[in-house]
Amino acid sequence: MKQIELDDRIIHGAISLEHKGEYVKPWRINYKEKDFYTPNQLNGQAEVPAGVRISFLSNTDKIKLEIAPSPLELEFDILIDNELFRTIVVDANKTFLEAADLPNQTKRLDIYLSQRNKVELKALWIAEDASFQPFNDTRKKWMTYGSSITQCYLAESPSQTWPAITAKELDLNLVCLGYSGECQYEPMTARMIRDTSVDFIHLNASINSYNAETYNHRTFQAVVIGFIKIIREKHKNVPIVLSSSIYGAHRETTENIVGFTLAQMRDEVEEVINIFRKNGDERIFYINGLDIFGAEHGYLLPDNLHPNAEGYKLMGQNFANAFKPYIK
């Protein structure tokens, strides 16, 4: 087999790549500034490669991907021409995955990395006599920022998260900034979005701030407004969709320590959009999270917070339908 270099020509969906000796580590922040993403690189979530994939064109009938040993089980998806071919589970401390029965015609191959645990890549191999070409993704780049509900730990597999499903439906180049527990609207994340070339931005607000009781009625809107203002410093005409939380069970009517219910936070998120539009921003839009996943879908929340695999598939389809008017 012949080795293919692992670099940004074929690794898509990462913000940066760290070269660590023989390994390449995808990050969903700029790793050179990682110390500024407190605490601990967003509590380790920036290292988890949700939405990151290796993409190339080849007629190879086999592939092998070497990885660093992990103390945790890792899951990968192989897609052929944007359709799921196989999910491969790599046991803890194992160092490779492979598939030896691929169709031998020229095709686009995507290897989606785990959305649950960090992955360090060592080497990619294809058949010795196979053709190879990096996938030049010219589709519109979409960046989505959110919580664990955007990282999608409980999705059936890495390519079946709601952002991946939405990206497939709308033919978008996905960059997923779903950080479990860490969607707190920090200025460093706003700066990163501002400084990244992108065609369409989606931001989700409220569930992490509700659960962590981060902001109160005095501070919540101000933080969200400031976050968007930072993004608008460079992305002046890029469509931004701000969505509120999906259905949150008891949180809808139960006040947290700072006096917020999730329903109240949803109202404040919508008011943020009204403020921007009143002041001349006609490229910012609101989606009510209940229109994506409402009370009628509560049976798909096994822990009364996170959707299960079926719930994420539903969200993927509903977000695709909701985003269509804003992607032009």
TrEMBL record:
Q: Which residues form a coiled coil?
A: none
Instruction: Pinpoint the SGNH hydrolase-type esterase domain residues.
Output: 140-325
- One of its Pfam families is Lipase_GDSL_3
Per UniProt, residues of the SsfX3-like N-terminal domain are 12-87
Q: Which SUPFAM superfamilies match?
A: SGNH hydrolase
Mind telling me what this protein is named?
Answer: G-D-S-L family lipolytic protein
